């Protein structure tokens, strides 16, 4: 993901890697359609943050299935963010596909994140 980031942004990310709140402004350049992460600050150190969810560019908020610590090397915790995104979407998708016929489609679509509702609809259509 660092291949498509400008040199100035990359230097800022790497130099502030242990401060997730400083790296947060670069997430839109690293992940498609991600506006930012929702953090809860740790009780001991305000720089040791825990990510609890993600905000999309359109304003949608999706909570992670499990909180994740953003500590250590920036490339490692960014990979953990990616894994959390995948796990969260996969979990929601499994739930959405199973619940598709349980309620009216308009209610079903609004209950899940947009990506999950679109993919679940396509699965049922096929």
From TrEMBL:
Domain named Dynein heavy chain linker: residues: 1-96
GO MF term list: ATP binding; dynein intermediate chain binding; dynein light intermediate chain binding
Transmembrane segments: none
Subcellular location: Cytoplasm, Cytoskeleton, Cilium axoneme
GO process annotations (BP): microtubule-based movement
Tagged with keyword Repeat: yes
Keywords assigned by UniProt, alphabetized: ATP-binding, Cell projection, Cilium, Coiled coil, Cytoplasm, Cytoskeleton, Dynein, Microtubule, Motor protein, Nucleotide-binding, Repeat
Domain of life: Eukaryota
Protein name: Dynein heavy chain linker domain-containing protein
Record-level GO cellular component terms: axoneme; dynein complex; microtubule
Primary location: cytoplasm
Aminoacyl-tRNA synthetase is among the record's keywords: no
